[in-house]
Design brief:
single chain; 173 residues; alpha/beta; Rossmann fold; 5 helices
Length: 173
């Protein structure tokens, strides 16, 4: 790879837009050991199946760490993929715990390279209940805060990435 790998990247998009697959491809262009930080919790069979499929799709060359709440403490000194900030935020809201965005961003800055996946939730309808509106507002702010500090911000739609900030590494389109 001829250009330096970004220190902090944010990959955003809608549900099933291809953002996680793109984030994994992005990390594969580096030759660093890869850590996958999974924020999902398997509360039902559908989610257990989805988690197993994602783990198998990644392959054995990834270290997988399940961290539904405390991401900052386990970021790798090499390269970490946080998938995803949306579920991480949901876990905190449902547990009635605040997220310290500044502490998270500082942890990212002191780690190796970090690629964060997050849902873009601001393009849909206004939710009809207070909890959903609280989540949408918090997710929008979290995305803005991470994007402000990120070296690379990419939106993925229909599997196609588009850099909003920074440059995609060569061969990523």
């Amino acid at each position: 790879m001829s250009q330096k790998f970004p220190k902090l990247s944010l990959i955003i998009g809608g549900a099933n837009s291809g953002k996680s697959a793109f984030a994994e491809r992005l990390i594969r262009v580096s030759s660093l050991p890869k850590t996958y930080i999974a924020t999902a919790q398997a509360f039902d069979d559908e989610m257990r199946t989805k988690i197993l499929k994602h783990r198998n799709d990644r392959g054995a060359d990834w270290i997988t760490v399940e961290a539904p709440m405390n991401i900052g403490k386990i970021l790798s000194k090499d390269i970490s993929l946080v998938d995803c900030l949306t579920l991480w935020l949901s876990n905190h809201i449902l547990a009635d715990k605040e997220i310290d965005t500044n502490a998270f961003i500082n942890a990212c800055k002191s780690a190796g390279s970090v690629v964060c996946v997050s849902n873009e939730v601001g393009l849909g309808v206004v939710p009809d209940n207070a909890l959903a509106r609280k989540f949408r507002t918090a997710q929008g702010q979290l995305n803005q805060d991470v994007a402000k500090e990120a070296d690379l911000v990419v939106i993925v739609t229909a599997g196609i990435p588009m850099a909003l900030k920074g440059r995609l590494p060569e061969g990523m389109l």
